[in-house]
Specification:
Helix content of chain A: 40-55%
CATH class of the domain at 2-171 and 637-658 in chain A: Alpha Beta
Low-confidence stretches of chain A: 660-665
CATH superfamily of chain B: ACP-like
Mean pLDDT of chain B: 85
Radius of gyration of chain A: 24 Å
Largest sheet of chain A: 8 strands, mixed
Shape of chain B: globular
Strand content of chain B: under 5%
CATH class of chain B: Mainly Alpha
Oligomer: heterodimer
CATH topology of the domain at 2-171 and 637-658 in chain A: Glutamine Phosphoribosylpyrophosphate, subunit 1, domain 1
Number of strands of chain A: 19
Shape of chain A: globular
Distance between the termini of chain A: 24 Å
Chain lengths: ~675, ~80
């Protein structure tokens, strides 16, 4: 895992760009503390900070081909790189290292953008064609690794994290109310959004080319639900689940450093840990967050899994003070307004993981989206068939939903039935499954003076998808989850942005294309979908304690406003002070103040989910404004040791310097 | 009925005025969610000593302040009559 950054500006010379790229890399140094390297040319520079996992000695970047024409800065892992290498060798490619970086570059040179379809991994990379002065950027199919970019005329900036742009002379950040409205409405940015004006995220499954100020994007992988195997029996389905997940974990254990596992206490990460143990020659290191607040704590189940598998377990206990103290730094790393505080404990956990000497971890993300683990999917099934059920049947189903939310309890079931009745017909074309969630989003959108239609962009996005209208309501719900909550929050804000804040790479076996394709073939084929992830659980029933296998989905959450109300950190002035709020003219300051006062003074039980969410949005928007827009309280930026500098401007041949380059720039 | 207005204004952080009239659909405007709906129903039942039938709660008649006030007034009157 690494971080990359680059700048293309035809009017700047190599020397100036060499200075710029070093400063850009220093802002993302946390992603790759093992070393830095860059390539410069007149008008172009790009570089990498590297977290060395495969072939630490020879995988130094930027990586060039023997002719010096192509250069690669690469972030992530291609898990099937050995198989691709064999294919490429058969076509005449010769390899100098054991690193997947070299496989990626050769695959690009050999197959062009078609190579992307062959990659099984989480990656984002940049290729520079020095002869044509063309840049290519690409990103994996599920949006595991980030790639932000900004074009201004003939200039292109790109980076794994937007904070790299802080180093670019003349570049300023401006929060974009239109994008923020979308984020508030649907919980996360859309795949191409960043929250900042004129900065885009390259959507998952896409690549772009930039040459002579012309930028074009291309899609190489859509999220399809018709590419799985034909599965005829439940027995066959269970066997295939075991087989494909085992292979997925095996591929993701490819590493020259130790790989650990994050245990949430749920069944998904327990399955991952079980399979990791099968391949381990010594006890697997596992990591968990525990909460002082019992409402959120799953430590009993985490310990049960750990002792069952005999793992070397590390538990990080999280207090209100931990959340309050670490939120500003975690938000800075997240870069995107967040609707929960649950990413903050993951920031703390990755620090602990790094301290324990682990650079790579596996986790269970992606299982709920693939195997229908969320109540959202059951809700969609029920609402979609509302008129087919008797009142009693509706109530019986509703009672099963959201067991962690008290207002779904049996004493409120009549009122809840009334609420669902109002959401039993599609009102927002293509977005039926998410209408209840978006209802809460409308409340959050009140933070803005003028929110416009927060759902205009997402409505346009689904309308533009050729095959979307042919999907079933549940598949549409899955599609929306993959494009919003999974990539826009779970994998990013709560996932890799937090782990990479401390140089830890996270890998997700449930995001293997073969595992996803299998899930699309078997979901709702052998059951009605109201027992979440039933097939996945049954596939591993004899490998884990029944208590874990039969455990209901317990959403990973953390104390939200309660933590800030209890600790009252100084930075709450950002959301309470009229003067501070006036610095963000797009906010509805009066509503923001009323909300902040309410959630910080009323008992936690009187604060609704949407109020907690809206408060977290407000706080993170204000914190992002302070660091990115006003450039106050910025954490220090540190360039990892320079290992490689390539100057293409000096001669027609690349001038390459290796080793201790503290004096060579 | 002032109590209902106060409750909604306090609970949902809004103020009824020309820009947000009493006939506004509280769901469509993003004011009400599932938690808030349950809170509102419980408040009305306790405050006015009434009980909503399933039909009333599922009939979409409780979406604006005006409708809520009418429904409550009707139920209070029915209670007095009986």
């Amino acid at each position: 895992m690494c971080g990359i950054a680059g700048i293309l500006n035809p009017v700047l010379c190599a020397e100036t760009l060499g200075d710029d790229i070093q400063r850009m890399l220093s802002h993302i140094g946390h992603r790759g503390p093992d070393g830095a390297g860059y390539v410069v040319d007149n008008g172009f520079a790009m570089g990498t900070v590297r977290l060395a996992i495969l072939d630490p000695a020879s995988g130094v970047q930027p990586f060039g081909d023997p002719t010096g024409r192509y250069w690669l800065c690469y972030n992530g892992e291609i898990y099937n790189y050995r198989e691709l290498r064999t294919e490429l060798e058969a076509r005449g490619c010769r390899f100098r290292t054991e690193c997947d970086t070299e496989v990626v570059l050769n695959a690009w040179i050999t197959w062009g953008s078609d190579c992307l379809r062959r990659f099984n991994g989480g990656f984002a990379f940049a290729v520079y064609d020095a002869r044509n002065r063309e840049v290519f950027l690409a990103r994996d199919r599920f949006g595991k690794r980030p790639m932000f970019y900004a074009q201004r005329g003939e200039t292109l900036l790109f980076g794994s994290e937007m904070k790299a742009f802080l180093a670019v002379p003349g570049f300023s950040f401006e929060q974009d109310p239109a994008q923020i409205a979308a984020i508030l409405g649907q919980w996360t940015p859309l795949p191409d959004q960043s929250g900042f004006r004129d900065i885009k995220n390259l959507p998952m499954g896409q690549w772009l080319s930039f040459r002579n100020a012309e930028l074009t994007t291309h899609t190489y992988a859509d999220l399809r639900f018709d590419e799985g195997p034909d599965v005829r029996s439940e027995e066959e389905a269970l066997e295939l689940i075991r087989k494909r997940l085992t292979r997925s974990v095996e591929l993701r254990l490819r590493s020259d450093v130790e790989v650990g596992v994050y245990l949430s206490g749920g069944v998904d990460s327990a399955i991952v840990a079980t399979l990791a143990k099968d391949f381990a020659t010594r006890p697997v290191s596992t990591f968990s967050v525990e909460f002082e607040d019992a409402e959120f704590d799953e430590s009993e189940d985490q310990q049960l899994v750990s002792s069952h598998l005999g793992t070397h377990h590390h538990a990080q206990r999280i207090t209100y003070a931990d959340i309050a103290d670490n939120t500003p730094d975690a938000v800075f790393h997240a870069e995107i307004p967040a609707f929960r505080s649950a990413f903050v404990p993951m920031y703390i956990l990755s620090r602990r993981t790094q301290e324990e000497g682990i650079k790579v971890i596996l986790s269970g993300e992606g299982a709920d989206e693939a195997f229908l683990g969320y109540d959202l999917f059951k809700e969609t099934l029920l609402r979609g068939s509302w008129d087919d059920h008797t009142d009693d049947a509706r109530r019986e189903r509703l009672k099963l939903f959201y067991p962690h939310l008290t207002h779904y309890g049996p004493e409120h079931i009549a009122a809840m039935t009334g609420l669902y009745q109002q959401f039993s017909q599609e009102k927002m074309p293509g977005l039926f499954s998410h209408e209840l969630r978006f209802q809460n989003g409308l409340f959050s959108a009140r933070l803005l003076k003028d929110a416009g239609d927060p759902f205009a962009e997402i409505s346009a996005l689904v309308a533009a998808q050729a095959c979307y209208s042919d999907l079933s309501p549940v598949q549409k719900a899955q599609w929306l989850e993959y494009k919003t909550l999974l990539s826009g929050y779970l994998l990013s804000t709560q996932g890799e942005r937090m782990s990479l804040a401390h140089g830890v790479e996270n890998r997700c076996p449930f995001l293997d294309p073969d595992v996803f394709a299998l899930a699309t073939s078997i979901n709702l084929k052998f059951d009605d979908g109201f027992s979440e992830k039933r097939l996945l659980r049954e596939a591993f029933r004899d490998r884990l304690p029944d208590k874990i296998i039969d455990k209901r989905k317990f959403p990973y959450r953390a104390p939200d406003a309660a933590a800030f109300a209890a600790r009252r950190p100084d930075y709450l002035d950002l959301v309470l002070s009229e003067t501070e709020l006036s610095g963000l003219p797009f906010l509805n300051a009066k509503f923001a103040q009323r909300l902040a006062n309410k959630v910080l003074t009323k008992p936690a039980g009187e604060i609704s989910t949407k109020e907690n969410q809206t408060f977290l949005y407000l706080l993170s928007i204000c914190l992002l404004n302070r660091t990115f827009v006003r450039r106050e309280e910025l954490p220090s930026a540190n360039l990892p040791p320079l290992q490689k500098v390539v100057d293409l401007s000096q001669t027609s041949e690349a001038h390459v310097s290796h080793g201790n380059l503290s004096l060579v720039t | 009925m002032q109590k209902i207005r106060d409750f909604i204004e306090e609970q949902f952080l809004i103020e009824f005025d020309e820009s947000f009239p009493e006939t506004s659909d509280l769901f469509k405007e993003g004011v009400m969610d599932s938690f808030g709906y349950i809170q509102l129903v419980r408040f009305l039942e306790q405050e006015f000593g009434i009980k909503f039938s399933e039909r009333e709660m599922t009939g979409g008649v409780m979406v604006s302040l005006t409708q809520i006030e009418q429904t409550v007034a009707q139920k209070v009157a029915e209670r007095v009559d009986s």
